[in-house]
Specification:
Helices cover 74% and strands 0% of the residues. By secondary structure, the chain is mainly α.
Length: 496
């Protein structure tokens, strides 16, 4: 793909052909293949290696925490990277793919729970190194009128990759590969699925790396010249006051958790509040240095539309994280009536969860084709409301359905919500961002994917143990209600 020419305004970016957009998004097939294997099977691996249900949320904390750290750093660095051959974002695509593929091979061979937990950190960090620049890549390459199509194409590949990856252990079991194993050993069907994921991840990302080209930084600035944006000044006094308040709240919460002997998971949320308060104190006092200071300033002065989208993202991703953590436990215990991880019923239920995850991603493929048409007819906000409402109702239905086959109907709604979450917020966001900060702002936007996951990891285990006798299906009910709230809040996004 070659690109060039003198451009006067952002809207003058040349439109790309269908196959050019296809090539630039194809790498997401591999990224989502790895991500879906992680989401559908890591809880199973943890339980196989001896984790108790109440430990699962904290073991999963690696996934959002690495995203919180890695994505803004990669975005900041990729904004400042340029190589005549390798470009701006593509070096990060390739580095992340190599590391993720190695982690996928190692994960199902973990000899102990602590090894698997450590490998989840490595795997998720590597996926994030590849994933974050892909979001900025669409904003860099496409004119505003083609961005919904670009992000919908990403959603298409995300769904397609996840369909195969999520169902792969089940399909391998159907072909005769063993889906049970001795205590503490991951079954062969899961192992071989992860090996296949490593190969697909590397090959798909490699396709995008070697089949695309990028605009140099000076050309991106020229595209953006017609839409100058004023940098917001930071009110140091206000930032310090907010920092003192949040630091005090966080420290008080830490003390309260210790004094009353509350669940240790809650320390994560309280510590996060205190750390952000301390960061605001440093920012307000002008003592936030280098890359950390730059990212923190951009976070504090983010565009108004980004703030509105952030709230929608918070409730959307809280629901998704609840689903990823607790669907295996909910389905195996409710629809299959099993809690023994060595039993045939438990493993049949766990394999069925893979089918359900494949199903919602399959429906997301179809939804990705329909979403651009929905946006033309109803607009982005109403389309997002419709899709999130379908997803919320789908999660709530897990609480009501007894026959596992009928859960496939629930996945229709979840699939539409998933496709919408992966496309419409990014299309709305990219139009409000300056080209020279596309990467760092996309990385900061990931905070509002990560923070709800950290909140979910902190409080869901506590809520289930305290109020719901540890029954994981109630986490899906809470997730469904959260997604319905996100849909209503989507109407608050300003488009001017």
């Amino acid at each position: 793909m070659t690109q060039g020419g003198t451009v006067k305004a952002a809207s003058d970016r040349p439109e790309l052909s269908f196959w050019q957009i296809w090539n630039m998004c194809f790498g997401f097939l591999g990224i989502q293949f790895g991500f879906a294997l992680q989401n559908a099977n890591v809880s199973r691996i943890f339980q196989t290696l001896g984790a108790e249900m109440e430990q699962i949320p904290m073991l999963w904390i690696a996934a959002p925490l690495t995203g919180l750290i890695v994505q803004p750093i990669v975005g900041y660095l990729s904004d400042r990277t340029w190589h005549p051959t390798w470009g701006r974002r593509r070096p990060f695509f390739l580095i992340g793919a190599i590391l993720a593929s190695l982690a996928l091979v190692a994960m199902p061979n973990s000899p102990a729970l602590w090894v698997a937990a450590g490998l989840l950190w490595v795997l998720d960090a590597s996926i994030n190194i590849s994933m974050e620049p892909f979001r900025a890549f669409v904003g860099d390459q496409l004119p505003p009128r083609q961005r919904p199509t670009g992000y919908a194409m990403q959603s298409f590949f995300i769904g397609l990759g996840a369909v195969v990856a999520s169902a792969l252990p089940w399909m391998l079991a159907a072909l005769g590969v063993g889906n049970t194993a001795p205590e503490g050993v991951v079954p062969d069907n899961v192992k071989y699925a992860f090996y296949a994921g490593a190969a697909v991840f590397l090959l798909a990302v490699g396709w995008t790396v070697f089949s695309t080209r990028e605009y140099p930084p000076e050309q991106l600035k020229a595209f953006d010249a017609a839409r100058p944006r004023e940098e917001k000044a930071i009110d140091g006094g206000r930032a310090r006051n907010q920092g003192r308040l949040l630091l005090a709240i966080g420290l008080a919460a830490i003390g309260g958790i210790w004094h009353f002997g509350l669940a240790r998971d809650l320390y994560l949320l309280a510590t996060g509040i205190a750390v952000y308060g301390l960061a605001l104190l440093l920012l307000g006092g002008g003592r936030a240095p280098g890359m950390f200071g730059a990212i923190l300033r951009d976070l504090y002065t983010m565009p108004g539309r980004m703030r509105q989208l952030a709230v929608v993202q918070f409730f959307s991703w809280f629901a998704l994280f609840a689903m990823w953590i607790y669907t295996t436990g909910a389905v195996t215990s409710v629809q299959f009536g099993a809690t023994d991880t060595q039993s045939a019923a438990y493993n049949a239920g766990a394999d069925w969860v893979g089918v359900l995850f494949a199903a919602y991603n399959g429906f997301a493929v179809l939804a990705a084709l329909l979403i651009p048409l929905m946006v033309k007819r109803y607009g982005a906000r109403l389309s997002h409301l419709i899709n999130l409402s379908l997803g919320g109702l789908g999660l709530v239905s897990f609480f009501l359905i007894e026959d596992p086959q009928w859960l496939l109907l629930s996945m229709v709604g979840v699939g539409f919500a998933w496709a919408s979450i992966l496309s419409l917020p990014y299309a709305l966001l990219a139009d409000s961002l300056p080209a020279e900060k596309m990467g760092v702002y996309m990385g900061i936007f990931n905070f509002f994917i990560v923070i709800p996951q950290l909140v979910a990891a902190s409080i869901l285990g506590f809520l289930l143990a305290t109020f719901f006798d540890g029954q994981p299906v109630y986490a899906l009910l809470m997730g469904g209600l959260s997604m319905l709230v996100a849909g209503v809040l989507a109407l608050n996004i300003r488009l001017d």
